[in-house]
Amino acid sequence: MDPRSLHAWRTTRRDLLRLTGASIAAVVGTSLSGAHAQTAYPTRPLRLVVPYPPGGPTDTAARIIGAALSERLKQPVIIDNKPGASGSIGIEQVVRSAPDGLTLGVLANPTLMSPLLGVRQNFDVQHGSTAIGMAYEIPLVLMVNEKALPGVTNVRELVAAAKAAMSAGKPLSYATPGVGSFSHLITESMQSLTGVEFAHISYKGSAPAIADVLAGHVPIMFSDMIAALPHVKAGKLRALAVASAARVAFTPDVPTLKEQGFDLQANSWGGIVAAPGTPAPIVERLSTELKVVLADAGVKEKMLAAGCLATWSTPAQFQQHLVSDYARWGKVIQERRIKPD
């Protein structure tokens, strides 16, 4: 080989080896950096935004989950109550936070449905956040005041009583925590299913609504289990049915709506979301830890005591749930012509 050609070949070979080594080092370095970032997360305390006041069902569930996540992540999980606009104010703070997985939020069904009821949101409630996963469900129970409706012991008897009251021109009334609440929407769905019409009495929250049902001023209410359970257990209100797919541990003797011939089911729910653009490794870590936490026997027991069912789903499943529930209840709101207060 010509000396000049030999020199050129050696130079090219040396340069190729140098470039190959640098490329390998870069790939390895990137992989190690990514692995380190995943294992290092989180390096600071997390904030879990609860977009409702302290003491409610979402707040109760969030505090149980937050405490368990803190143990798993080895960092404090600080509960930050930011109520307002059916939860939209708090979730907007999450959506506009840095996508580092350090600010999380509890997105519950009232917030999902609020734009359907005229609440203005500055974000896309269906797609504007990063879904981490479903966290809990709260069974709904259909209950009546026994003194107001003494002969009603199941849903068929309630429907019969309602039809008789309609024929007499005095429809039975039902209480809800407010227009567009889950209690309101499922009762409207039941009316469509059965052909009965109740008179809606709207209150500002579960407490005053249940108080009037206890007093007999309003005989009927679909309530979340957290608010209803003490009165059902005390025998002050009669539980006719649960709206979940299966009977619940709190009231094992109370049949589902479907068991009684009414194909209607729905639970109130809440899930964990993060800011849009949160890196996939962080989402995966949070989803995995949430799954472990919700499977823990101690967490399940605490959730049950609070009237909640620990319910995990993948990020993709929770995202799909947001889309399907928005469509389902949006149809009810439209068909029943439900208007905001």
Care to give the gist of this entry?
The protein contains 11 helices and 10 strands.
Q: Give the CATH H-level superfamily of the largest domain.
A: Bordetella uptake gene, domain 1
Q: What is the CATH C-level name of the largest domain?
A: Alpha Beta
Which sequence of SSEs, written as H and E, runs from N to C? HEHEHEHEHEHEHEHEEHHEH
Could you say what the CATH architecture of the largest domain is? 3-Layer(aba) Sandwich
Per DSSP, what share of the residues sits in E-state strands of 2 or more residues?
15-25%
* Continuous helix count: 11
In which range does the helix fraction lie? 40-55%
Unreliable sequence segments? 3-13, 19-38
- Give the total of beta strands: 10
Question: What is the count of structural domains?
Answer: 2
For the largest beta-sheet, the strand count, sense and barrel status come to: 10 strands, mixed
Structural class: alpha/beta
Mean pLDDT: 89
The CATH topology assignment of the largest domain is: D-Maltodextrin-Binding Protein, domain 2
The N- and C-terminal alpha carbons lie at a distance of 92 Å
Overall morphology: globular
* Rg on CA atoms, Å: 26 Å
What does this structure look like?
The chain is an alpha/beta fold. It has two domains: 46-136 and 267-335, D-Maltodextrin-Binding Protein, domain 2 (3-Layer(aba) Sandwich); 139-260, Periplasmic binding protein-like II (D-Maltodextrin-Binding Protein, domain 2, 3-Layer(aba) Sandwich), CATH 3.40.190.10. The chain contains eleven helices and ten strands. It has helices at residues 3-40, 57-73, 88-95, 109-113, 155-167, 182-194, 206-215, 225-233, 280-295, 297-305, 315-335, and strands spanning 46-50, 77-81, 103-108, 130-144, 173-176, 199-202, 220-224, 238-242, 267-274, 309-310. α2 (57-73) crosses α9 (280-295). The longest helix is centred in the N-terminal third of the chain and has 38 residues, at 3-40. It is globular. The termini are far apart. Residues 3-13 and 19-38 have low confidence and may be disordered.
